[in-house]
Amino acid sequence: MSLDNLTNIQVLIVDDEPHIGTVLIQLFELNGLNAAATTDPRQAVNLISPDWPGVVVTDVNMPGMDGISLLAHCIDIDASLPVVLLTGFGDIAMAVSALKQGAYDFLEKPFNNEHMLDVVKRALEKRSLTLENRKLKKQLESHAIPGPRILGNSPGIVRLRNLIDMVVNTPADVLIEGETGTGKELVARCLHDHSPRHQANFVAINCGAIPENLIESELFGAEAGAFTGIDKVRVGKFEFANGGTLFLDEIESTPLSLQVKLLRVLEDRKVERLGSNKSIPLDIRVVAATKVDLKQLCDKGEFRQDLLYRLNLVTIPIPPLKERREDIPLLFLHFARIASARYHKELIFPSAEHNARMASHGWPGNVRELRNLAERYVLLGAESAFAASLGGHAELQSGMSLSQRVEFFERMLIEEALSHNRGSIKQTMEQLELPRKTLYDKMRKYDLDRKHYLNDTQEEA
Question: What is the pLDDT of residues 110-121, one digit of tens each?
Answer without folding.
Answer: 889 999 999 999
